[in-house]
Amino acid sequence: MARAPRRTKGRSSRKPPQSLHRQSAQRWHQLWRSRRLRYAALALVALLALSYLPPPLVKPLPEPAQQALSVTVEIRESLFEATQHIGAEMLSSGDPAQALDDLLDPNAWLDRLLSWFGWRQGVPESFPAARKVLYEQVYRGQRTTFYCGCRYDRSQQVDLRSCGLDELSNNNRAQRVEAEHVFPASQFGQSRPCWQKPNNFSACRISGGDTLSGRDCCERVDPVFRTAHNDLHNLFPSVGYVNGQRSNYRWGTVSGGETYGDCDIRIDGNQRLVQPPMAVRGDIARTMLYMRQTYDLYLNDRELQLYRAWNNQDPPDAWEIKRNRRIRSIEGISNPFIDNYQSL
Fold first, then answer.
1. Between vectors from CA 321 to CA 317 and to CA 324, what angle results, nearest 5°?
2. CA 6 to each of CA 2, 3, 16, 280: distance values in angstroms, whole numbers, following the listed order
3. Radius of gyration over alpha carbons of the chain, in Å?
4. First-to-last CA distance in the chain?
C-alpha cells in the first residue's frame, strides 16, 4: 500500500522566496555555464590586461602587435564609457530596488551593451518573431497580462484563477496569451492599397486562385505597415478571449458594456468602444501617441484630448519605464511619451 505523503504540522510545503542576491547569483551562474561565453570573457579579460602594458614594454613589440594593443585600448575605453553610462542610467530609475535588480541582472547589462554598440537593433521582421521577442525578452520575469493582470507560464498558458477570470475557464482562447495591438492594426492598415485590394499584388496571390487577406498581404509587401505592425512598443500580452472581444474597437469611456470577472475592462460592442482599467490608461495613451507620432497615424481631437488626460492621471510606473528601456535596447528607439510624459 502506498503511503500518504508526510505532512509537518504548522509548516508550509511551499519553498521560501529566494533573495534578490541569490536569484542574481543563479542568473550569473547560468550565463557562465556557456563554454563559448567563458572563452570569450577570458579572452576579453586577457586583452584588457594587455592594454595596460606600460609604453616601455610595448615599444619593442612588432608593429602588428602594437596596432593590436592600440585597438585593445580603444575597446577598453569604449567599454568603460558604456558601463559608466549604463550604470548611471540604471541608478537613475528612481526605484532603489529596481536599480539594484538591474545592476545585478546579467541580461539587463547585455541588453544595454548591445544597444550601446548598435547591435541587435530594429523592429522584428515578422509577427511570429515579434511575439517571441515580446514574451521571452521584453516580459522576461514579468509574465502578467496587460488588461487583467493574469499570470501566465513559459508556454503562454494563462492562470485564469490568478486574476478572477474563472468564469472563462471553459473557453480555449481564454487559456492562452495573445499579442495585442493597442493601436489596432486595422486602423493603420485599412487605408493602404495592400489592405484594400490585395488581389492587385502578385505576391499576395497564392495557388488555387486564392488571395491573402489584406492584413497578410500588407505584412508581405508593405515595409511601413510591417514595421508598425511588429513594433514592440504597440504589443502587449493579453488574455486571448479578451483580445478577441476588444477586436479593433477604439478607446473611450462607457457606462455599460460587457465585463469579465474581476477584470476592470468594459467593452461596448454597440458603440464599438472599450474602457480600459484605470491602472493602464496612461500606458495606452502613451502607446497611442507614440504610434501617431512615429508612423504619422490619425487620431481625432477627442482622442487626443482623452489621451492627454489619461497620461496625466496615470503616470509611468517602474515596470512601464523598464519595459520601454528593454524595447529600446532591441529596436533602438524609445517611446518619448514615457521618457518625457510631463510634456503633455
1. 140
2. 12, 8, 19, 45
3. 25
4. 70
Give, as one character, the DSSP assignment of residue 134.
I
Residue 115 pLDDT class (50, 70, 90 cuts): low
Q: Where are the alpha helices (DSSP H) in the chain?
A: 20-32, 35-50, 55-58, 63-91, 96-104, 106-116, 127-133, 185-189, 193-196, 214-221, 223-230, 240-246, 281-295, 301-313, 318-331, 336-339
The three-point CA angle 131-293-228 to 5° equals 25
| Least confident among 11-25, 50-64, 67-81, 311-325 | 11-25
Between CA 32 and CA 43, with CA 37 as vertex, the angle to 5 degrees is 115
User: Is pLDDT above 60 for 86?
Assistant: yes
Is the predicted pLDDT of residue 76 greater than 80, yes or no? no
What pLDDT score was predicted for residue 122? 86
Residue 342 one-letter amino acid? Q
Q: pTM value?
A: 0.69
**Strands 273-275, 250-251: parallel, antiparallel or unpaired by DSSP?**
parallel
Q: Is the pLDDT of residue 5 over 70?
A: no
Cα separation, 200 vs 211, in Å, equals: 10
Rounded Cα distance between 84 and 100, Å, is: 15
Query: The dihedral of CA 98, 102, 108, 112: what is its sign?
Result: positive
Q: Are 69 and 91 in contact (CB under 8 A)?
A: no
| Dist CA 329 CA 320 (whole Å) | 14
What does 210-233 look like in DSSP terms, one character per residue?
-B--HHHHHHHH-HHHHHHHH-GG
Handedness of CA 97, 103, 104, 109 (dihedral sign): positive
Smallest CA-to-CA distance from 211 within 227, 224, 195 is with 195
